[in-house]
Amino acid sequence: MNQEIPQLQNLPKIRYFQRKLKAWATQNLRDFPWRRTTNPYSIFVAEFLLQKTDAATVAPIYEAFLACYPTLETVAAAPIGDVETLLQPLGLFFRAERLCQAAREILEKDGGKIPNTQKRLLELPGIGKYTARSILAHGFLRPAAVLDTNVARILERFFGIQGDRVKSRCKVLWSAADIVAPKRNVGRWNLTLLDFGALVCTARNLCCSDCPLRSQCCFPATIRRSRA
Fold it and tell me: Are 38 and 139 in contact (CB under 8 A)?
């Protein structure tokens, strides 16, 4: 796929991108409770709760959820109404039902162990490509890059790539995410991109003058000035 993306033939630029963002991450990564564990069940829960929901909002609910349901077995046995009540502050009311359904299916078909392949994870209720890959990267330390709106925005701006309107389904952007990811510590790399997009390369009120990527960024200078 990278043969179809000329911007990603520039290996020195990719190395620059990696180097600058890794350096930025040493001082700027945010701290959330699910980032302090590699327990597959805890990551599984966190990724369900984080779907279309701000991390700061999720943090207290995540800790309360694990206190009530510390194992896959406990959430699989829980009445959906109880789980819905606990997750109510997060919205997306279908989330509780899908989480419980996924937990029950894992008990029935996977021996109670969180699946460790993308193919199997995608067969579970409520899990798409981003969630599956994030579980693999953080729960199993697999080299699985992720793509969300933050990551897509960084890739489009820095490399001058034009993705599809629906970023989460854009094959070019998914390929780009894979290509620019380092070979090691991809989970931390994913967090770096997510946080950089949330704190620096934002949709509005850009901080381009302070951006560590500015010297090689393809985002047009005129647009940067008009949106800063």
Answer: yes
Q: Which one is catalytic: 41, 62, 69, 148? A: 148
pLDDT tens string, the chain, 228 residues long: the values are 444 688 898 999 999 999 999 999 999 999 999 999 999 999 999 999 999 999 999 999 999 999 999 999 999 999 999 999 999 999 878 899 999 999 999 999 999 999 999 999 999 999 999 999 999 999 999 999 999 999 999 999 999 998 898 888 899 999 999 999 999 999 999 999 999 999 999 998 887 888 999 999 998 654 544 454
* CATH number for the domain harbouring residue 67: 1.10.340.30
Domain shared by 135 and 46, yes or no: yes
Q: Per the structure block, which two tokens stand in for 172?
A: 């070019």
Q: 47 an active-site residue? A: yes
Catalytic residue among 41, 47, 69, 156: 47
Active-site annotation holds for 108 = no
Separation of alpha carbons 158 and 153, rounded Å: 8
Domain boundary (139, 162, 187) is at 139
Check if 82 is active-site: no
Residue 133 burial (CB count, 10 A) = 25
